[in-house]
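Hi L.,

As promised, REV1 protein:
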Amino acid sequence: MGRGKKQKNVGSCGMYLFLDDGEENYYLLVHRRSKQVSESNMISAPGGIVEKRRCGDDGSDIFRGARVTALEELREETGFVIREEEEKDLFELPVSPEYAWWGEGTHFNFGFVCYHWPDIPGPERDSLHEVIWGGMDKIGTAAGDGYHSWVNVRSLLENEDLMPACRKPCEYFLEIAPALAERVFTNTTARKPAMPTTQDRLHSSPRTTASHSGIWARRARAPPQYGVPSAPRVQPSSSVSGVTPRSGHKEDEESCRPLKRPKGSVGRAWKAAEAGAET
């Protein structure tokens, strides 16, 4: 985009929703990108374009804008909602500078860990054109929405279809995942939840599956500089205390779904930036 033009888009972000099944197996929620977005047919985690209006009053805080956008893109592309009180559990993941479209320091990756199998409602209507229905068939464990799968991170890194920009965050997560889980479960009386069978996932809700662990560890987070959390947050099991686990359950959609972005199409925004067009 030319220097004389008003710049609307200033960066980009990736949002990585991981799953630790308690058996030292780590999964990432991914989809296959459609022909209407860049790097079509590649396997990717959710992500999107960061608009200047998201970056603070003067539009200069790209990190802030990327964080807000990452949460929105996760909701729009998967239906999984991270509630406001859980946002502190996000952690930053490393970036390969060569994949930052707007230059070094303009792309940010964020991670979030589940210790149970969550419900994935699927993309919002305005995001359906960005992902391929059935694109993840026979790869990993189907998330149940027809678009996404939970794929073992190690297997994913061996897949040639994985988008190059996703490799470094995945490799780094494998390094820190054991320490993340260890801190969560050694600082509480919790036991690591065993991986449910396929039948369990089909016939049990995430709420039921989560309660099997006794004490339910909802999220883990890492502080800045890609460190390991010193005091991860945990929540009690719904079966013990009556507390309802917070995740992207369908019954929560109406109450916790923010308003849609007026121009939330990553594909159109990317195409506009690529062509140097003003909107």
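Strands lie at 9-20, 26-32, 43-44, 47-51, 91-93, 107-114, 141-142, 149-152.

Thanks again for sending the construct details.

K.
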